[in-house]
Specification:
The chain has 7 helices and 14 strands. It is an alpha+beta fold and 236 residues long. It has 2 domains: 139 residues, Jelly Rolls (Sandwich); 78 residues, Winged helix-like DNA-binding domain superfamily/Winged helix DNA-binding domain (Arc Repressor Mutant, subunit A, Orthogonal Bundle), CATH 1.10.10.10. A hairpin with a 5-residue loop joins strand 6 and strand 7.
Length: 236
């Protein structure tokens, strides 16, 4: 069972690790901390589910969370993964609505929550913070559009290269050498390809010396330039 929400304060504050709350005054950090609650989730537990009331901003403090929808046949359509410092549920800040996606921990995670009314009150009295929040929202929309374009326009090699480069900087403390933060079946679902195709492509990348595979999830990026060229569609 997930633990109950509790106050999130001090050096381990969620807000200290989120770009939209960066460079806050100490008084502002204290104000936000008072509104933040944190909760531990075990792998496989839901942070929220489709159809539930949407009334909070969720900040990933530790771990990885997948955001997805279910088809009528029950098949997962993964929209994105959230890492430490990422946030979700932001649309709840603008109107009362229901969740249209599911958020599930893919490994043990700590997620912080700020209720809509609490955050709106804080942003109302801090225009600079509100502006940064709108900037972050704009970046999220841009990234979503870019990824949608990637799925519809790029071949499998380019999609894989892009996501490996992204996970290489965000999936672990040591850039370039890390474990895939998600299962290969989830990664394949995000990329819109079959798990068998993903395994075959990763093996090919390994043979070319662009990456090095170890175990089920270990990946070391050996040639960043090669992956960057692949992601851009340049021949190798």
């Amino acid at each position: 069972m997930a633990s109950e929400f509790s106050g999130c304060v001090g050096d381990e504050s969620c807000v200290c690790h989120v770009p939209i709350f960066r460079d806050l005054k100490q008084s502002e950090v204290v104000l936000l901390d008072a509104a933040v609650q944190s909760r531990h989730y075990r792998k496989g537990e839901f942070i929220f589910q489709e159809g539930e009331q949407s009334d909070s901003l969720y900040i990933i403090h530790q771990g990885v969370v997948k955001i997805y929808k279910l088809s009528d046949e029950g098949k997962e359509h993964i929209l994105r993964f959230l890492f430490a410092g990422d946030f979700g549920g932001q649309l709840a800040l603008f109107k009362e609505d229901i969740q249209y996606t599911n958020a599930e921990a893919v490994e043990d995670a700590v997620v912080c929550r700020i209720y809509r009314q609490d955050l709106k009150t804080i942003l109302k009295h801090n225009p600079e913070m509100a502006y940064r929040f709108l900037q972050a929202m704009s970046d999220r929309l841009r990234d979503a559009d870019e990824w949608t374009g990637s799925l519809s326009l790029l071949d499998a090699d380019r999609r894989i290269a892009k996501v490996l480069l992204n996970f290489g900087t965000r999936g672990g403390p040591n850039p370039g050498s890390h474990k895939l933060p998600v299962a290969k079946k989830d990664l394949a679902a995000l990329l819109g390809i079959a798990p068998e195709t993903l395994s075959r492509k990763l093996a090919y990348f390994d043979e070319q010396g662009w990456i090095s595979l170890s175990g089920k999830k270990g990946v070391e990026i050996k040639n960043v330039n090669a992956l960057q060229e692949i992601a851009k569609g340049m021949p190798n």
